[in-house]
Amino acid sequence: MNGNEKQSKKDNIVLFPNLAERLINKGLDHLEKKEFRQAASLFSQARDLEPENPDLNVGLVVSLVELGYYSEAKDLCKELLNKGIGDYFQVVTIYLMVLLQLNGHEEMVSTIRALLEDDHIPPDKIEHFEKMLEFSERVLEEKNSQESIKEEKIYQEIEKEGLFEQKTESGIMRTISRLTEVNIRPYVPEIKQFLREEQGNPFYKTLLINILREQEYDKEVELRKFNETATFIPANLFDVVQSPFYIEVSKLVEANLGQENPTLLEMVKSLIERHNFIFYPNDPSKGHFLEWAASYQLLAAEYQGMDPIAEEIAESYRVEAKAITNIVSYMKKIEEISYPII
Predict the structure, then answer these.
(1) Which of 86, 161, 232, 339 is least crowded, fewest Cβ atoms below 10 Å from its Cβ?
(2) Per CATH, which fold does 241-338 belong to?
(3) 298: closest CA among 262, 276, 271, 278?
(4) Which is the CATH superfamily of the domain at 10-138?
(5) Burial class of 158 by CB neighbour count within 10 A (0 to 12, 13 to 18, 19+)
(6) Neighbours of 208 (CB within 10 A)
(7) pLDDT tens-digit readout, 193-224
(8) Domain definitions of the chain by residue range
(9) CA-based angle 99:100:103, to the nearest 5?
């Protein structure tokens, strides 16, 4: 039987009549018996057949809530509200209950305010929703107050101790940890100076760059690492594990080693991850991913006492043996910096 005949037969498969309805009814029976896992399974199957059926969607949301799958329930509620599936007020009520479980008070406040402004709440429910709004606003106020007190304490500690000067490695690490909890902008001038200094530890520089990126700092920053200077805007940077260097070199090593030696592969990936963090956001390979992939395999094999032959590894990647031995020598220097820290 050829492919077309198979496809034709597949296309001609007829589902059981009223299958979706039967699945929904069974799901509702399980829901009534508080058998939420079975109900969720049946509603999910029915949803593949009738994705916009109100009964099954609301039943699925209720089952997810009862099972404690609040994130999934939240996403489904948002989808139903956006598509106008099911009774609007019923779905939005479940949505608010889920947000409460997830401590999503900011979203609760914005949702309830919109409901009150648009007159979507039945008159007999307005007082209840106003109390919910008041509660969430109070929680947010207390949270903001606590965060302000905490931030002020950290600012005072940094003001007293300074950021980086005359500090031990552990002292600098403690300061950077504090910076993750406050607005970093008051300290940008000192951070920029640290990033420009050749003697600044590259590991700490990566941590600081990440804080700037996460706080969406959108001004140019100059970075000095390993005798190279780069200028970039932190807010525009990719995440550490999304760097082309990390992704491409990891792919090449996995393709070359495959299932041949899982232990060696793990060692190689550990080295790539460590070096990628140290060099971030720069690409140490300058796009020569094959050479660096081969070099990591060679270095990892040496670390595992395997007495590897550079020429054989180079041939498997179709690169020059001399190139990878030079890179390995450079990697060993990087290891002296990165290994004690990471």
Answers:
(1) 339
(2) Cyclin A; domain 1 (1.10.472)
(3) 271
(4) Tetratricopeptide repeat domain (1.25.40.10)
(5) middle
(6) 25
(7) 999 998 888 999 999 999 999 999 999 999 99
(8) 10-138, 162-237, 241-338
(9) 85
